[in-house]
Amino acid sequence: MSLRIWIAAGTTEGRLLAEDLADENVELAVTVATEYGASLIIDKPNVSVLDKRLNDRGMAEFIDQFKPDLAIDATHPYAAMVTETMRRVCEKKGVVYKRLLRPPTDEEDCLRFSSVEEAAAWLDEKEGVIFLTTGSKDLHKFATIRNYEQRLVARILPVRESLDKALDNGYIPSRIIAMQGPFSVDLNTAMFKEFQSSWVVTKNSGSVGGFSQKLEAARAARAKLIVIERPEDAGSSYEEIRDFVKSQTEA
Question: Can you tell me the distance from the alpha carbon of 148 to that of 105, in angstroms, rounded to the nearest whole number?
Answer without folding.
Answer: 29
